[in-house]
Amino acid sequence: MNQFQATQTIDSARLLEGLNPPQAEAVTQTEGATLVLAGAGSGKTRVLVHRIAWLMETQGVSPYGILAVTFTNKAAGEMRGRIASLLDVDVRGLWVGTFHGIAHRLLRQHWQEANLPQDFQIIDSDDQKRIIKRLLKDQQIDATSLTPASLQGYINARKDEGLRPANIDPGSDPVAARLRELYDAYEAICRRGGLVDFAELLLRSNELWLQQPQVLMHYRERFRHLLVDEFQDTNTLQYAWLRNLAGDRATLFVVGDDDQAIYGWRGARVENILRFDKDFSPVTTVRLEQNYRSTNTILSAANALISHNAERLGKNLWSDQGDGDPIALYAAYNEVEEARYVVEAIERWMAAGNRRDQAAILYRSNAQSRAFEEALMQRRIPYRVYGGTRFFERAEIKDALAYLRLTANPADDASFERVVNLPTRGIGARTVENLRAHARARQLSLHEAALDQLTSGELSGRAANAVRSFLELLDTMRRQTADHLLPDRIERTIQLSGLIDHYAKEPHEKGQARIENLQELITAGSYFTPEEEVEGSLGELNAFLAHAALEAGEEQGDAWDDCVHLMTLHAAKGLEFDLVFLCGLEEGLFPHQRSVEEPGRLQEERRLAYVGMTRARQFLYLCYAESRRLHGDVIYGTPSRFVAEVPAEHIQEVRQIGR
Fold first, then answer.
1. Model-level pTM?
2. Is the peptide bond before 174 cis (omega within 30 degrees of 0)?
3. Pick the catalytic residue: 260, 297, 453, 603?
């Protein structure tokens, strides 16, 4: 053995220290492409870090020859730091970043070849929406027929598919033809301004590969080792970008888990990981099945659940941490009792000396958070809505509350301004500013100023008609809801406001979530019981509005505080907690009704349940309600099929006293 080989052996042993056999096998692959099927909690980041370190230290690969793609900037920074710490070397030459970050870096270096100005500017989602809003206004397209959010979703989806306007064939569909024209007009605006949106970064850099072969060959020669994290979440364009860069010479090392592919609704294609072995043959597949997070009971239950999905690459998670406690299954009377039971269980957890921030309440829909928020506030338990906004702080809820406030008090200027042109009704910023000036000069409310200007004729033409229609709408709301019970009053106000139709035009998942939240506001009204002295002084509607304002203003606690975590199952991916409650397990809610009839979507719902279960380290509760108030109606549901798919030997049903 020569000196180099001896050093290599020592270095290899040091870099593989602490890895289990499958992890070490993945790290040391030398032939062809590698697919690492990394189960939940199996140490995939550790494998990626050690793989890069192993390439550099034992294979003599320069950091300049490695490109690693992550899905968040935080993950990229963490990976770079861990590699530097492991090797104690300068890794600034290493390209580690998100798809968009790497694409941006490429376009900055090759702006001329990419047909961009040198000082091109990146625009965020809000900037993009403002441009689109202005485009629709210039084209005289009413936002009630096509919202800026809908057009934004259409453009970004086409870019994620790698399609320019010229590549889209609308056939005989006039709507598709119009959307293509608007996409083309939007691109013209961006070209004139030297603007690049997020979706454009990757599309433009992929076109750089296709249109500038000398640039592509340069990077193929440079990056002989490509590593990709969360491969199951790649979309069509990201997959094409990787294939173009890899060519037939790069060593591709991808890490992912087809059982955790839960982002199909935003363009991710689980098919990418399923077909990897065909597109990059020969492929070595390594399964990381040892879980370092959960008990065997939780893992066995999750394995059984996900086995009902077809077209899996297949793996079986296990742990050396023992069986642990059985999974608790609780059937609540309704969502209020479900929330009460969960919060009482958290109180027992806290009384045993455990931290609140190690408890998480997971649910399918954001609208479900309301009942839990109210129960936690009643018990004065600090909480944080992770990756989202508290119920009464959500934009669509504030919109509906603004209409309700105006039915109770037309002089509420803040509410007037919020919804005077929402949904869009042709009342522009100039008209609103004129109303403000008139109100200031005469010490009037905006509502009074509008009436005054209409009476005097200061408002005329289209603006006058639009303002008059808005005031008539508010008057109709007051007259038609005055004698109704609170939930009916809320429901009728939402119907008259047009907010449902307005949000239905947003991209599907986002718009549907907003509509579900508005419907949950009706449910909140049906459960609201004001204190007697408050109701006597305010009336039921005003008491409810005060309650909503106080809840929205209540401090949640800072990020570093010891708070219970509330989040959707999508937001929970990548996180872990000692105590997890998976709630709302009813057919039609989870799996969602929209997914039941489509096998592909149903399988993604099951993967979502699998992700939720594998967030739990020690204790897992599954909860469902025998009845649930949804959309203002009481629904008598059945337990989710996912409950039945968990073997009975892993379940312990919880019975309340008297049931």
1. 0.79
2. no
3. 260
